From TrEMBL:
Native organism: Solimonas marina
Protein name stated in the entry: DUF1800 domain-containing protein
Pfam family of the protein (one): DUF1800
Residues in the signal sequence: 1-22
Keyword field: Signal
Amino acid sequence: MWRYRFIATLLGLSVTAAPAWALTDTQARQLLWRTGFDAPPERVSALRPLSQGQAVDRLVDAAADDRLAKTPAPDWVGEPITVPFVPKDLGDDEKQAFRRMWAQRDLQLQAWWMQEMLTTETPLAERMTLFWHGHFTSSLQSVRAGQLMYRQNVMLRANALGNYRTLLHEVAHDPAMLRYLNNQQNRKGAPNENFARELLELFTLGEGHYSEHDMQQAARAFTGWKALPPDGRFVEVRRQHDDGIKSFLGQRGNFDGDDIIDIILRQPQAAVFIVDELWHEFVSPNPDPSEVERLASSFRKDWQIAPLMKQLLREPEVIDARSAGTLVKSPVEFVVGTVRSIGLPLTPLSAVLAADSMGQALFYPPNVKGWPGGDGWITSDALLSRRQFVLALAGDAPMVAPQGQGREANLRKREYQQLRRQRAVVARRFGEFAESLPPDAALQMLALNPVQPPVDGAKPPDRLETWLLDPVYNLK
């Protein structure tokens, strides 16, 4: 044996086997797909010498340090807050131009975040920000102020892997949230219960863990909390605040909104609820109740999100081959992952429109419950849109809808022409990437073996297109 080692050393050969605890290529890819958007070979290679725990620490620590977006924000995010009501004295053409301006701003804000996801070096930071955006739901459709939605994104990003208690208090003070859930109309003597109800039902505890009385008392505690123009800052209007005694979850006192949140966090269910949500997002659709409780028990000691994510992503199920393909890619993951994997020169605006067509418009969750997630992404219309997107990348379908249709109608002429012109460039890069892949590269693209493998002798672009159209490509 020593002779073999000596000869191998002279020849420059490596004889050191990977430690038993080191990740395999397949496990590294699965971890990257679960925590990001793609699994490029260089990142797989970087994780391969590490154990699952070491790899998780590296990913979470990098994301926790990345608290600011690198992409410059639209130049209007600092403007005073105005409600985009169409002035009555405008002519028809002027009204149309006014509406188009606001629609273009929405697209610009969406493209800003999409560009960050397409180019980030810490995908987990974006995935966590996207998770909280879908959990603590607000929508441009109701908030009607892109400046406030931008600030909310900045807040969610800064706290995405920070302290959950701090995050929850920030959400309750967030002007976009208060506008979205009508807390602007919540005042002493005439409480609006929308924010209090969703805080308890969808954000922190879940149905069955509070009473209608608790919800009503919480609404009283949040009276007078609102966002004031022109800058949209949070204020507590004292004359509108109910400072009477309230009884909430077994406690009595002259509570305000911050007191309500602190009482919520004393409930064991608060930690269980959020751990269960994170498990669904990053591990599997079937949480292990005993493991959820174990993680929740640790989490509620200090409410630190980064350590929780490190524990969660150390679950064997995260990299187990038996759990591969059990999670469904969201439209944003599908689009961003495809563009990043292939290195496509796709504009962020095109990516926004593609994800929107599949059912996920950034800053526009469909309702207060957020996006459906899981199998809810797999509808016949959504799958058709995913197929159309892949065909467009390969040059086999139009890149954008005809001018004047859908959201494309809100684009300036030069923006629309830019989207059309990129078709040839994108298709060329698609072909170049396909040529660089070995025939057995399905494992680099798919979480499981393809349902419909490419035909023997297929040309590289056709082979790549077949993999991306395979049902398995929707899974991670």
